[in-house]
Design brief:
single chain; alpha/beta; CBS-domain; 3-stranded mixed sheet; 6 helices; 6 strands
């Protein structure tokens, strides 16, 4: 099985110039926990996640996702309006080609401790594979194996 078989092709992106507040609103809208960061030409610059936001608004960072209700505190919400995604994003991102074997991607994600990998064809962002996508693929594989046995 290849990466292209499990990747999500419709990737929501955020621009590096967007405010963190607008980024959080989009996360809520799409019910996701992170997005690739692109420039005006759509080039991948990095990734920004809820963890990055937590580090931005709390020192030390908030302990759990459940603790991160940023809109309850007006001071925090105001701060997020003035901070740009580029200020908190992680620039180092892991990318793979759509043709990569899924087992290789599983090893990479496991060894690196990452939850999302962006799929690139040439310089174009064509998809994303998350930990949840990998669990779904593994579940389908197990179902197939059990039905054969």
């Amino acid at each position: 099985m290849k990466v292209r078989d499990v990747m999500t092709s419709e990737v929501e992106v955020v621009r590096h110039t967007d405010s963190v507040k607008s980024f959080l609103e989009r996360l809520e809208e799409f019910e996701i926990s992170g997005m690739p960061v692109v420039d005006a030409d759509g080039r991948l610059l990095g990734v920004v996640t809820m963890t990055d936001v937590g580090k931005c608004v709390q020192d030390p960072p908030l302990a759990t996702e459940a603790d991160r209700d940023f809109y309850d505190d007006e001071e925090r919400a105001a701060k997020l309006e003035n901070v740009k995604v580029a200020d908190i994003m992680t620039e180092m991102v892991v990318t793979v080609a759509p043709e990569k074997e899924l087992v290789e991607l599983a090893e990479l994600m496991s060894e690196s401790g990452i939850h999302r990998v962006f799929v690139i064809s040439g310089e174009e962002l064509v998809g994303v594979v998350t930990s949840l996508d990998m669990v779904r693929a593994f579940g389908e594989y197990l179902s197939e194996q059990l039905s054969v046995a």
